[in-house]
Structure formats: C-alpha cells, structure tokens
Specification:
The complex is a heterodimer of chains A (300) and B (303). Chain A has 300 residues and is of the alpha/beta class. Chain A has helices spanning 2-32, 54-67, 80-89, 103-111, 141-148, 175-185, 206-215, 250-254, 274-284, 289-293, and strands at residues 43-49, 71-76, 94-97, 116-130, 138-140, 166-170, 201-203, 219-224, 233-234, 236-238, 261-269. Chain A has 10 helices and 11 strands. In chain A, helix 3 (80-89) runs parallel beside helix 4. The longest helix of chain B is centred in the N-terminal third of the chain and has 44 residues, at 2-45. With 303 residues, chain B is mainly alpha-helical. Chain B folds into 2 domains: 9-45; 50-299, MetI-like fold (Orthogonal Bundle). Chain B contains 13 helices and 2 strands, in the order αααββαααααααααα. The chains are: A alpha/beta (300), B mainly alpha (303). At the A-B interface, helix 1, helix 3, helix 4, strand 7 and helix 7 of A face strand 1, helix 6 and helix 10 of B.
Chain lengths: 300, 303
C-alpha cells in the first residue's frame, strides 16, 4: 500500500530532478549561444492547461516548430485549472484555458507578482452526445439542465426508451465543467445555486466520456466538439422550447445560433515578449488555418 | 607483528562501526521519514478545521468548487469498495493458498508461486484500462446496472490486486503450521480435506487475518484503477443497489483534484485532510495486522 505512493513520489522526485537539469542546461545554452547561426534551439516555450485545447495547442506547436526549428514548444494538458495554477506559480509561459480566470486566481497571480494577460485563440462549441442507439436526437437547454440536476431520470420522459439516464461530466478542474454549470445548468443566472446531481459520473478525461457514451445506451455526456468521435451521436440543442434545434458546427457557432459555444483562451504572465509574443502572433494569424481541421471554430 | 595485528583489528573495528552506524541511521531514517510525512500532512491538512465548519465537513455533498466539503460520501465510497473487494478476495485467496500449500503437487507449486508474484506486478493503470473496456460493459449487461462504472467493478479490480498479497501471506501462515498437526489429523482417520479445513486452516487463522488486513491496506490505498472504473460520483452509497451504482473514493478524489488546486486554498487543505484520514486508516489497518503478528510471537511459533 505504501509502496505505490513511495514509487509515485520517487518518480515525481526523479521528474523534478530531470526538469531542474533541463532548466540548467537551457540556461547555459541561452547564455553561451546568443546568435544561433546553424539553428540551435535558442528558445523554449512551456504551454500547459486545458484538455479541450491540448490537441489544438499540440498541432500549433508542431507546425510552428516545423517552421522555426530554433524554438522548442512543450505542450501538456491537465485541465484549465492546472494550467492557470502553473502560470500563477510561474512555471509555464503560456496557460491554455477553456474558461476565463477567476478573480481569486488573478489575485493569487498578483500576490506572486504576475499579471495575467488574456488572448482569445479560438472558439469551441460544446456538443451534447448520446449513444447512437438512443432515439433522442434533440433537447432544449432546460431539459439538459433538468437531467443534470436529477429532475429527469429516465429517457422515457424525453421521448426515448424506458431507460435510466446516466449522467457523464468532466472533472471539476475542467473549464468545460464550469462552463456547462454556469451556462447550461444555471442558464446563465448568477443567482442560481443549482449543482450537478451527486449521481453524475465525473470522468477524469475526454477519453473516459467517449468510451462510456460509445458503450452505454443510457449515457449522456458533453465535451468540446473537437473531441466528438464518429461513434457518438451529437444532439441538436435549442435555447428555448419554441426555438429551433441546432446542431453544432463552424457555421452555427459563427452565426450565433448554436447556444452553447465559448471562447478558448491562452494566458501569458505579463505582456508577452520575444519568442512568446512571436508565437502568439503566429497563432492568432496563420495558425488559425489549423483550427477548423481539429474541429474548433477559427476566429476569422 | 603483534602491534600490526592490533592496528588491523582496530581498523576493522572502525569500519565495522561506520557500517553499523550507517545501517542504523538508514533504519531509523525510515521512521523519521514517516513522522515527517505525517507532520507535513498535519501541517497542510489541519487548517481545514479552521476554514470549514464541522457540519460542512461531515456533510453529504462534495462540491469543492462551491465550498461544499462533505467528506462522508468519499469515506463511505472508499470503505464500501474496499470491504466488497476483500469479501471477494478472501475466499479466493485462502482457497488458492490452501491449494498451493496443501494440495498441489510440487511441480504445480513451482509453477504457481512465481505466477502469483507476476500478478502483483501488473500496473494498476493497465488493470483500470481492462476494467473500463471489458469488465464495465460486462457488469452493465449481465447485472442490469445503469452504467458499468460501479462499486462492484472497482471492487473486482481491487480484489484482483489484493489477491497476490493475501495468497502469499496466507501461504506463509499455512507453511508455519507444524507438520505434526497434519500427521495427527490424518492419524486420527480424518480425510485430507477434513484435516485442512478443521485443523490446518484454523491453526493458521491469525496469519490469515494478517493477510486480509494487508490486502485491505493494499486495496484502500489504490488510486488509478479505482478512479478509472468506479465512476467517481460523490453520492451516498445507501440502498440495496449501492453496489451497482458509482461511488467516489478518497484516493480518486485526491488524485483527480490535486492538480487543480491553488496551493494554500481551502480546497488544498481539504484534500490534505482526506490524506490524513487515509493515512490514519491504513495505519490502523497495519496496526491490527502487526498486533496479530506480535501475539503470534508471544505464543511462540505461528499459529
């Protein structure tokens, strides 16, 4: 029992040592080779955060490193909260987030002498997904809210088969979790105190949600549109009972008819400078061509 | 010549002293580390008692993002998953130990023992993946649960993980039962089965109890596999169908939420508070296991 923890700690320690070593090495490199003529690595960008953004961030980083071999960008996921926490601790240059920073996080950053600067880098639709064998294909925001708060517990009440509803959600460190809570469950009402039903299964990853939706005809889940695979069925969503039911797509997000879409952010510690600035300019400019390939909605 | 021998022996004494001191320091440092870890846990976890009122801490709702820190569903979730796992692993483990030690021919024992040790070496994340893709759909279809990510799925995986511990410790306990016990049983006309069931296993019962406690300690601390297959819904596991419903364990909660929290926040202290509870639970379990071992030593010989 102790062995597992011990092993994990020692692994953490080893990872920390390796990171320290890398850091020392990179410092020396920067110091000794100010002008890279034969394209040595002169700059490193640490990029961490939202699991929603991680594939897009990886695609950007790979394409950018292909064009600029002197820059090394490392991308990790872990959730918006994780990335922002790292930015506050000063361990990353760029934090990816699928939600805005909370005021307490901005305060915590301020206490560490860091002023976070926000950039909108893409837009994302949140797709509501069910198993393909489920006949329910359209839901209103009110119905989704009633399901996730435990008011509706059987698919029969929504015109489906007599099956219990199994609610799937991302973990509470996910920006998507907070977005759905505020904009779907609470319908954007800041005074509302509704919460996810305690029966909601909190899955540690997008993969967990897609696996369960694929296997289980009782399940309903939500995730960024870029993560929906072909074996899940996307539900059309209407803002109100009378309103049109709309499927998420680049067109419906851009014309504002799909009701659950949100901006995706990158945060820097202070105004970006040097290689981070150049990278962000590239992301907001030529990098946008990659956005739609990965299922997100480009800014322009 | 006499003088030279004396310096050599003095030198030997000196190196011996050094080695002994080193080994002693290393041995005691283990205790030191455990104490330091516990102190660290206390320092990081105790502030939760100041930040959050007790009625909230012992509430039934765990929504740390909204200042609801009810730990009861997590505690009960851990206990339910662990106890179910041990109830499944105990008969299997003891039966396997009995077979390996008492019944199996030599060649089978030589084959089985290393295989059981290999069981212990499977990484928990692999078992979790297997559970998610194979056991979960099976549980849903076979038992009619709404979802396959349930207490019983987690308990099955944990039972599997606790088995090697239970088998090897129980086997040692059976091994320690004197041969004269078996001979006496057989000599009185008991069959082999009667000897095993009425004489050998009862004689080894305290060792078997230790095996169960160690297996339990292994199960309650397990994180990754449990997080992947129990569904992580922080609900109170009451009702007859609690085994077929999801649950959230303490370990999974710490693992899933630790990456997110800001250092020093209320949520951070709450997670360390859970860590203290886990530490105390495993400590208690180990203490019970150790006390049965000490009792055995007092009586002289394993019984």
């Amino acid at each position: 029992m102790g062995g597992v923890m011990d092993r994990r700690w020692s692994r953490c320690l080893a990872a920390a040592l390796i990171l320290l070593l890398c850091w020392l090495l990179s410092c020396r490199q920067q110091g000794s080779e100010p002008t890279g003529s034969s394209k040595p690595v002169t700059g490193k960008i640490e990029n961490k955060g939202s699991d929603t953004l991680v594939n897009l961030a990886l695609a950007w980083a790979e394409r950018y490193m292909g064009e600029h071999p002197e820059i090394r960008i490392s991308v990790t996921g872990g959730g918006s909260g994780t990335g922002i926490a790292s930015l506050i601790n000063g361990t990353v240059d760029l934090a990816n987030a699928s939600r805005e920073m909370k005021s307490e996080e901005i305060r915590a950053a301020g206490a560490n002498g860091i002023t976070p600067v926000q950039f909108v880098v893409a837009r994302d639709a949140i797709a509501v997904v069910v198993n393909p064998s489920n006949p329910v294909r359209a839901l209103t925001l009110g119905q989704i809210s009633d399901m996730y708060t435990g008011k509706i517990t059987n698919w029969r009440e929504l015109g489906g088969e007599n099956r219990p509803i199994v609610l799937l959600s991302r973990e509470s460190n996910s920006g998507t979790y907070l977005y759905v809570l505020e904009n779907v469950i609470r319908r954007g009402d800041p005074k509302c105190t509704l919460l996810f039903s305690p029966d909601t299964l909190l899955m540690p990853s997008s993969e967990g949600i897609s696996t369960e939706v694929r296997q289980n005809p009782n399940a309903i889940g939500y995730d960024g549109l870029g993560y929906v695979t072909a074996d899940q069925e996307v539900v059309a969503v209407a803002a109100d009972e009378g309103g049109p039911y709309v499927l998420p797509s680049i067109a419906t997000v851009n014309d504002g008819s799909y009701p659950i879409a949100r901006p995706l952010y990158m945060y820097t510690a202070g105004e970006p400078v040097d290689q981070v600035k150049t990278y962000l300019e590239w992301v907001l400019g030529p990098g946008q061509t990659l956005v739609s390939i990965l299922g997100f909605v480009p800014l322009h | 010549m006499f003088a030279r021998r004396r310096t050599r022996s003095a030198q030997a004494n000196w190196t011996e002293f050094l080695i002994e001191a080193l080994i002693r320091v290393l041995g005691f440092s283990t205790i030191g580390f455990v104490l330091l870890i516990f102190l660290f846990l206390l320092r990081e976890g105790v502030p939760i008692l100041r930040d959050v009122e007790l009625s909230n801490l012992f509430g039934v709702r765990w929504y740390p993002t909204f200042h609801l820190f009810g730990t009861l569903p997590l505690l009960l979730g851990s206990v339910l998953v662990t106890v179910t796992a041990i109830l499944m692993a105990l008969p299997l483990g003891v039966a396997t130990a009995v077979f390996v030690r008492e019944v199996a021919p030599d060649w089978a024992r030589e084959l089985l023992k290393p295989m059981i040790e290999v069981l212990a070496g499977i990484p928990s994340v692999v078992l979790g993946f297997f559970g998610m893709h194979v056991i979960a759909p099976f549980i849903r279809e076979a038992l009619g649960a709404p979802t396959g990510l349930t207490v019983i799925t987690g308990a099955l995986i944990l039972a599997y993980m606790a088995l090697p511990t239970i088998i090897s410790v129980a086997e040692d306990a059976l091994d320690a039962v004197p041969k004269s016990f078996r001979d006496a049983g057989l000599a009185m006309g008991a069959t082999q089965w009667q000897t095993i069931w009425r004489v050998v296993v009862p004689a080894a019962r305290s060792g078997i109890a230790t095996a169960v406690m160690l297996g339990m300690g292994r199960a309650i601390g397990e994180t990754m596999a449990v997080m992947m297959v129990t569904g992580n819904a922080a609900r109170m596991p009451f009702g007859l169908d609690a085994l077929l419903r999801p649950a959230r364990t303490m370990t999974a909660t710490i693992a899933a939420e630790m990456g997110e929290v800001a250092q020093g926040s209320v949520h951070y202290h709450a997670l360390f508070g859970i860590g203290i509870v886990l530490f105390l639970l495993t400590f208690l379990i180990n203490l019970v296991a150790a006390s049965t071992i000490f009792k055995k030593q007092r009586r002289g010989g394993l019984r």
